[in-house]
Design a protein that fits this description.
The chain is mainly β. It has one helix at residues 13-20; strands at residues 25-29, 51-55, 59-68, 80-87, 92-97, 110-118, 121-128. Strands 5-4-3-6-7 form a five-stranded antiparallel beta sheet, with helices on one face. A two-stranded antiparallel sheet has the order 1-2.
Length: 134
């Protein structure tokens, strides 16, 4: 799969640095303990700028997903699966689900992070914990 380049922002640069090292980190509010993504200046729903990145296990459950057949950009090969993963620590992350045919993916499936290396970046994606119809 070709992928467009990731462009780090002021708040996401540490996320992308960790991904290049194949570490999965998510921002967490130091005041509320709430995880959030994408990284922003303030924790969503608060005025708190007191947050930090926390290294996570990178395991979770598929909450919802869709199979994309018509991409917004020619940089993506179709079909691909875009899903929401809820992490074991309580975070949610919008991601590609890879490593199995789209028809093998199901809500409730256990997944783990894998990193797709492209020029200058590494993209966190998720794959089934157990092999699925590959």
């Amino acid at each position: 799969m070709r992928s467009p380049a990731a462009i780090p922002s002021t708040w996401s640069s540490e996320f992308w640095e960790a991904a290049r090292a194949h570490r999965f980190v998510i921002p967490r509010c130091n005041r509320t303990g709430r995880y959030f993504f994408p990284p922003e200046r303030c924790t969503p729903g608060t005025d708190s700028t007191d947050w930090s990145y926390v290294e996570c296990r990178g395991t979770g459950t598929v909450t919802t997903f869709t199979v994309v057949h018509r991409p917004l950009s020619a940089d993506f090969e179709t079909p691909y699966v875009l899903g929401v993963v809820t992490g074991d620590e309580g975070w949610t992350y919008l991601t590609n689900i890879v490593g199995c045919p789209p028809e093998a993916i199901s809500i409730g499936m256990q997944v783990r992070v894998v990193f797709h290396d492209i020029e200058g970046a590494s993209l966190p994606m998720f794959t089934p914990v157990e092999p699925q119809g590959v």
